[in-house]
Amino acid sequence: MTSKIAIDALSEAEAKLELARLAVELSAANAAYYTEDNPDLTDDAYDALKRRNSAIEKRFSHLKRDDSPSDQVGAAPADGFSKIAHEVAMLSLSNAFDAEDVMDFDGRIRKYLGLSTDTDLGFTAEPKIDGLSLSLRYEDGQLVHAVTRGDGAVGENVTSNALTISDIPHTLQDCPKVLEVRGEVYMSHADFTALNERQSERGGKVFANPRNAAAGSLRQLDAEITKSRPLRFFAYAWGALSDPLAPTQMGAITRLKELGFSTNPLTVLCDGPEAMLAHYAKIEEQRATLGYDIDGVVYKVDDLALQDRLGFRSTTPRWAIAHKFPAELAWTRLEGIDIQVGRTGALSPVARLQPVTVGGVVVSNATLHNEDYIKGLDSKGQEIRGGKDIRVGDWVQVYRAGDVIPKIADVDLSKRPTDAVPYQFPAICPECNSEALREPGDAVRRCSGGLICPAQAVEKLKHFVARGAFDIEGMGAKQVEQFYVDGWIKEPADIFTLKDRYGQGLQQLKNREGWGEKSANNLFQGIEDKRNIPLGRVIFALGIRHVGDAASNLLALHYETWDAFEAAMVDAQKHEGPAWDDLIDVDGVGAVMAGSVVSAFAQSGERASIDRLVAQLNIIPAERADTSGSPVAGKTVVFTGTLEKMTRAEAKARAERLGAKVSGSVSAKTDILIAGPGAGSKAKKAADLGVQTMDEDGWLALINAV
DNA sequence: TATCCTCGAGTTCC
DNA sequence: CTCGAGGATA
Prior knowledge:
The chain is 37% helix and 20% strand.
C-alpha cells in the first residue's frame, strides 16, 4: 500500500490515481469477503480504506468514478440504502377469503383460458410466509445484489445484509446465466423470542412480532447487526431469468432446492380447488406448530406456459392467489369519530379507539368508510353487522382487513351506554364550513369548497408530490403541510419557484425548524431532479377525479405530448366535436372520466394554475412501448365471431402487448378484422370497406412470425 | 340493461 | 387492503 498523503494535500492527479487504486483494492476485498467467508483484510482495515475513498470523493467530487466503491454492491451509503429497479416487477397477490373465492379463482382462469371444467388444471399450494419479500440476483452463479420489494418497481439494495443470512447461497452451480430468485425473509418464533429477551436485557428495542423483527433486522445499515440476527429465507419464485428453470411451478421450486435454496416443505401439487382447500385445512391445522408465522396459503397455476398466457393485471398476476386465514379479532371501546377531508373533498369518518392489540400491532384508529357504513348498511342498502349502527361509547370488535387496515366487525349492544346516541354525520365540511353534499346514488359526502378548503388544497399538494406523481425527494406529506401552512406553497407551481423565492443563501429555509443546509440543499436538488418529467406523471399529478395512474398513462400514450393533450382538452370543452369523440374513443375512457378531465381545463382558475406549473417543467413525451419488429404495431384490429384458440380477453391482451389497438367495431380506421366462425355484420362491413380480413389461424401466424 | 372487471380513492401502522 | 363506481361487454 502506498503511503497515505493527507487528503487536504492531495493534488488532483494524485487523487484520481488513488481513487482508481482504491476501487480495485476494495472490489477485491469485497469479492474475498463475500465469496470465501475468509476476508484477506480485517474489518478495520477495510473500513479505513472505504472511509478514505469517501473522503477523497467528497473533496474531489467531480473525480468520483462510475464504479466507485461507495456505490458498489454491499455498500450501504451512510444515509440509507441505494435504490435498485427490478428488471421484472415484484407484484403482490390478490386475495381469497373463503372457499367460494377459491372456486371463483379456478373458474376465472378456466374462462380466461377457455378451458372446460373437465380439462385438467393443476395448481401448487404452499404456506404464505409472513415476512418480507426479497429478490436475489445471480449472474454467472454469483450473487450480485439483493433488493427488497419496495414499491414493486424499485427496491432497496440490502445486499450486504442478505449475505449474512445462512439460507442465502453466495454462489450457485449449474444455473442460468442470469437468475433472480425471489422469496421471503422471516424469523422463527424461537429466534424471535430469544432476540427480544436479549434486546430487553440490553435495553434495546423490543419487537412487536417476528415480521417486524425480520424487517428491522434486514434494514440495518450495519450488516454486522444483521449478521447477529437469526434471519431465514424461503425461495418460492423468480424474476428475470436467462433460461427457464423448468416447465412447471413445482419443477422450478424443486430446481431452486437443488440449487441450494430452502424451499417450504409444505409446498404440494393439487389437481383442483378441492385438493387446494384440503391442503389449506391441513396447513391451518399445523399453523401453531410450524415455528414461524404464516398468514395464509398461496395457490399458483402449475403449468408455466399457462401462467404466461394468463399474464398480469395492473398489480397482480392472474395465475396466483393468496387464500388468507381468518383475521384475529379484539374488542375495545370507541372513543370518538373524527372526519377527515380527502383531496377530492370526500368526508371520511375515522374511529378513534381505545388502543388495543390486534395481530401483534397496537391499533388506535380504524376506518368507518362512510355515512351508511356507520348506520350498518352497505352500498346496496343491505345490512352489515346485522344492521347494528356504531355509536361513540360502544364496545366494538376490531380486525385488520387483509392483516393491514383496521376495521370494525361488530358492536356489542349489551354494553352500549344508555346515553349513546346515533352518530350524526356532518352536513358541512369540518375544515372549511362549506356545504358537504351527497350526490344521489353516491356513497360519499363531499365538501363543495374546492381549493378554498385548506384540507383539499393540502391533500392535492400531497398527491402531487407522492409516489407515482412527482415523487419529489425530501418533500413528503409533512413538508408539504408545513409549507402550505406558512403560505410558501399554495399550488404545485410554487414548488418549482421555492428556491428563487426563499432559497437565497438557504438562509430562510435553514432558519426554520428541522431544516439545515444539507436538508435544504437536498430538497432543492430533489425538486430540480423532477423538472424533467414524463407526461403520464404530470397528468396523474394533477389529481383530476377519476383519473389515476392507469388512466393517466392511457391519456399520455394517446396524446403523446403535453401540447397535444392540452389543446385537445380545451377543444373538447363542449362535450362534443372531434376532440371529444377522440377522447371518448380512448380505450378505458368513458364520458364520466372525459368530463372530469375536460373540466379541469375549463375553469379559468384551475387552468391558470396548470399553466403556471407547466411553464416550470420540461415534459417528456410519452413513448409507445417498443414494438418495433411487431407486425401489428400501430394497427387497429377488431375481433369478431368465435375465437377457438383463445378467449377474447386473452386475444386483446396479446394484441395490445404487440402494439395493436383493439377496437369493438369496424370502421374506416380498422386495419385488420379477425373473423372466427359465426362472424356476421362486422365481416360484411369489413368487406364493404375493403378492410383486410383473416381467420384466427392467420392472425396467430402473423403475430407469431416475429 | 345487467354483469363482470378494473381502477381510483380512501384507509393504518411501521 | 377494501369498497364503490366507471367502463367494457354480452
